[in-house]
Amino acid sequence: MTVKKRVATAKQRSTRVTKAAPAKAVENLFFSRDESWLRFNQRVLEEAEDATNPLLERVKFLAITASNLDEFVEIRVAGILQRIEDGYDLAQPLDEGGLRPQERLERLRERLKNFVEAQYQCWNERLLPAMQEERIHVLRWEQLSDEARSYALEFYEKEVDPLLTPVTIDPSHPFPRVLNKALCLALLLRNKRKGNGEARPATLGVVTVPRSLPRLVSLPGTEGNCDFILLHELIGSQAERMFRGYEVLSRSAFRVTRNSNLYLQEEESRSVLESVRAELHNRRKGDAVRLEIDGFAAEEIVERLRITFELDPWQVFRTEGPVNLSRLMNLYSETKRPELKYPPFTGQEFRLGQKAVDLFEELRGRDIMLHHPFDSYKTVEHFIEAAAEDSGVISMKQTLYRTSKDSPIFRALIEAAQNKDVTVVVELMARFDEDSNIRWARELEDAGVGVFHGIFGRKTHCKLALLVRRDPDGVVRRYAHLGTGNYNPVTARFYTDISLLTSRPEMTEAVQKVFNYLTAETEAITYAPLMVAPLTLADSLITLISREAIHAKAGRPAAIVAKMNALLDRATVEALYAASKAGVEIDLIVRGMCSLRPGVKGLSERIRVRSIVGRFLEHSRIFSFANGGKEEIYCGSADWMPRNLFERCEVLFPVIQLDLVRRLREEILAAYLRDNTKARLLQPDGEYIRAPRTGVAFNAQDYLMRIAEGTAEGMSSPPPGHSNQ
Q: What region holds the Polyphosphate kinase N-terminal domain (predicted)?
């Protein structure tokens, strides 16, 4: 069977499952994706409300909820609106919760409103009072002291005023093009010039707040105080200066969120790079889907803006505080109060064995597994940098989904291209990193790197690096890095991920086949021991889950422990239900969206689902199968979602070395399953509750940090589901 036929067959299998389930049965068996996502963001908000977290970390969590919500609105809500507008409502298949687009939208409206209210309640009733106790103040203009006001005015005149372009809306001055998520000020103005005695109608004025400036301006204050003023508050205080000749009747900050989905079509006349670049230009001007505006805004301003942006009333969100809460991240970074933040943590450095002279010799003797950020990411950087510098390395291949500015890995690839064959697969469609990825792709090409963009219509999401080296003994060997996270040293400090470094011939040969698929779409008879999407992964997962059911029925050890970001694929969920009914004990650690309904008698009573939201973003994917006593553990880049299984190029890889298998099972998975501090348990009704605390409080991430620092001992017992092995 060809690659394309295999992919088509996999899609048909998923579609058949979707169409076969009647609406009522779907509602009983599955949770809605979007409502599940909102519950995840609610769990992040709970961390902002949790007084046991350091105060500035709580502010940071609130900012994260706002950033998350932005993406949800500009992608998910915008996508629903787009499908309704295009007339696809009745033609669309039911979603995970058995709803059509219009029904989903109606259910989301109230949840969105309630969530925004909860965000501002957290800010006004919990964080602001706590900050005031710590002498951290976000002040209004009228609250400033003479000294602070003088400083703010000087800052305004030197740094702000030259960047402002005030506009009055009239036939000669149409409404300015407000870019996506740009903070603006709307002002209701009345011309002071005398007319013919008739009352002059109010005019609307608009000023865009410069994105290049910090949203919070630090002010001088008394010793021990940290005082700030919001940039738009400072600009608003000078409205009369900007609009001389007008009386300022009212003013308010507002922000418009636009449809940010990219709609690409394959055109022979355009490269993928040019197509993405053209669509990015359109994204900034997409249809408006949400208007956020000060809660005290005059009704006339609100209505004029609503009509201008062609929004329904439900799409207007009045805020009882700063319009853009995500910018509170600046408050976290600008407030130099380390006692109000998490203590600094540095991951454990990897050390070579006594007999190895370099990393390559170490890998010829054993695999190396790293659990970031508890293990330093510098080992991965060193792997790429050493390859770039090593004269024995003949060629390098790597995927790049997201990386960071001034990344050592990026620099190493450019340096390596001077005297080696270097191939990089750059994913241009990594959401909201498209601009930077286009720049990196061009820089790599200019340096002589062979740059490819994967297979059109499928994101390259797998995390792979492959080196070919002529070793000192004259033998040409391959060395590979396989990971669950992006090649991004910045996010590696606060995302949990797994890295595997290996020279196993069967593993590195399979990685080579994946690169051949990405650069030439060539077929391979097998990709074993890897599971590769969209080719073999979906069916392989079903096989592994079904195998556990067979073991359970035969009385052999049968258990699944699976950690991922999201679980939405219907066929996979149904396989888990079947395994549960067959007697398989299943523990799922799902950070975000989960459509599976656990704990339902006769269906999923042996399935437990937990979500952990803490200091680090849980991003690793780890899948353990008891397999009748011959345990198999896989890690990789793919969640159990249709987009990962059918629409992206993904890789799951086995961890084979026994000591690494034990570490995954007895240290890492066991810690997450024991957590009773940051874990929430999914209930059959879709709500989450805190894990019950029977005995000593246990925080998995804190424990793993102590392990890295050498101040904690390993787990004394295996996780649930493995106790009988």
A: 30-138
